[in-house]
């Protein structure tokens, strides 16, 4: 237990966790343009179907976005012309159970649990996921290099969400 507490005293880890919490707040407030500025150039946003896969490029994913695709997704969500924008869900998410998977002077990789509660069209729903954030620390501030969301029901039917995970 003392080792876990010592990890929180590491400013690299504290900075990475603060970025993840800030990201969650931006997503719940639908501040997608500001959210996009949290990403390192070439960053990947991935929601795999296979909960065990590590080779996202060679497997089927619900989402596998690079910079260009992420910005196109944001445009669809904010334009008002797509069903995902018209029927956008209100969300509140909690990220906890942080585990450091890797750290060095340039990168911190965190694992966490996410519980997202959403409300859309008079219905409330809950999504759970294991999330991995790879945070680049060697620039002016921390940036997301990769975010992988492993939904606990990823192999089941998934409806259009109208929000970003």
Quick overview:
InterPro entries: NTF2-like_dom_sf, Rng_hydr_dOase-bsu. This protein is α+β, with helices and mostly antiparallel strands and 165 residues long.
Question: In words, what does this structure look like?
Answer:
The protein has a six-stranded mixed beta sheet. It has one domain: Nuclear Transport Factor 2, Chain: A, CATH 3.10.450. Helices cover 29% and strands 40% of the residues. Strand 4 and strand 5 (123-136) form a beta hairpin. With 165 residues, it is of the alpha+beta class. 24% of the residues are buried. The protein starts with a helix and ends in a 14-residue tail after the last strand. The protein contains five helices and six strands, in the order αααββααββββ. It comes from Streptomyces luomodiensis. Belongs to the bacterial ring-hydroxylating dioxygenase beta subunit family. Keywords: Dioxygenase, Oxidoreductase.
Please describe the structure with a list of short key phrases separated by commas or semicolons:
165 residues, alpha+beta, Nuclear Transport Factor 2, Chain: A, 6-stranded mixed β-sheet, 5 helices, 29% helix, globular, dioxygenase, NTF2-like_dom_sf
What value does the average pLDDT take? 89
| Poorly predicted parts | none
Q: What is the H-and-E element order? A: HHHEEHHEEEE
Portion of residues within helices:
25-40%
Look at the helices and sheets and give the structural class.
alpha+beta
Q: How large a portion of the residues is in β-strands, by DSSP E?
A: 35-45%
| CATH class annotation | Alpha Beta
Termini separation (Å)? 30 Å
Largest sheet: 6 strands, mixed
How many domains? The number is 1
**Biggest β-sheet: strands ordered side by side in the sheet:** 2-1-6-5-4-3
Quickly give the CATH architecture: Roll
Question: Can you tell me the overall shape?
Answer: globular
The total strand number stands at: 6
How many alpha or pi helices?
5
């Amino acid at each position: 237990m003392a080792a876990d507490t010592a990890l929180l005293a590491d400013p690299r880890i504290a900075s990475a966790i603060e970025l993840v919490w800030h990201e969650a707040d931006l997503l719940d407030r639908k501040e997608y343009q500001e959210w996009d500025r949290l990403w390192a150039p070439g960053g990947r946003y991935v929601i795999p179907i296979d909960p065990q896969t590590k080779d996202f490029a060679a497997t089927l994913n619900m989402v596998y976005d690079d910079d260009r695709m992420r910005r196109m997704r944001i445009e669809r969500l904010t334009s008002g012309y797509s069903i995902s924008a018209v029927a956008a869900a209100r969300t509140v998410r909690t990220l906890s159970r942080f585990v450091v998977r890797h750290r060095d002077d340039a990168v911190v990789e965190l694992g966490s649990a996410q519980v997202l509660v959403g409300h859309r069209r008079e219905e409330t729903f809950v999504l759970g996921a294991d999330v991995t954030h790879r945070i680049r620390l060697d620039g002016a501030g921390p940036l997301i290099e990769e975010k992988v969301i492993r939904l606990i029901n990823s192999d089941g039917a998934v409806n259009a969400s109208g929000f970003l995970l």
